[in-house]
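hey can u run this one w/ flavin-adenine dinucleotide bound, need the structure tokens asap thx
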Amino acid sequence: MLFTHFGVSGPIILMLSMAAAHKKACTFPMQLRIDLKPALSKEKLDARLRRDFEKYIRKEAANGLKDLLPQRLIPIVLDQAGIARDCPVNQISREQRQDLADTLKALSLTVTGTRPIEEAIVTAGGISVKEINPKTMESKLVPNLYFAGEVIDIDAFTGGYNLQAAFSTGFVAGTAAATKECIPCEN
Ligand SMILES: Cc1cc2nc3c(=O)[nH]c(=O)nc-3n(C[C@H](O)[C@H](O)[C@H](O)COP(=O)(O)OP(=O)(O)OC[C@H]3O[C@@H](n4cnc5c(N)ncnc54)[C@H](O)[C@@H]3O)c2cc1C
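ok here u go:
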């Protein structure tokens, strides 16, 4: 997952956006919750916070988190946890520390929409696979018409599956079309 100038991106977000864009019942804004420390259990995260706060006991909260988070994320996390950025580390209560751990395990972002179609990675919809002969990719409705790739109603997670689908269907369609017996035109 990536934080970008327009919002969040990266493979996991692309996968989620596919579900969000697909579901007609889904309406924006949506809440997205991000576990910023997936490798740490709540208990381990709390122990880590205690260690860091001991190390930075004379600093302000924003500086107490510099070993744990990228600099620009710190104020956002503190704001969501309800801890003042300039709160001295030695005045952060146990409850506040737990709120901080909760925020780190479920940072809440509001998603206002997906990026425009021009930036889409894959399109959903197209020619139904039910109308295509899978052995040749020829239309079942219109003879001598072949389909491959994006024009077919198939879409998959990012990671090479869509390219593979385009290559495979393109190979089958091309081979089948080239080897089809020519039907002489009338006149
Ligand atoms: C930014 C981006 C990243 C992607 N990353 C991945 C990835 O990591 N993994 C993955 O599996 N898939 C990925 N995809 C999806 C993948 O690229 C497509 O699914 C795949 O290229 C579809 O192949 P296609 O041949 O059906 O269509 P396209 O690759 O779109 O090819 C269609 C071609 O037809 C041409 N064309 C259009 N109209 C006409 C016309 N009237 N006359 C002549 N030519 C025309 C176009 O110029 C184009 O060259 C990505 C797509 C984008 C946009």
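The chain has two domains: 30-105, 122-179. anyway lmk if its weird
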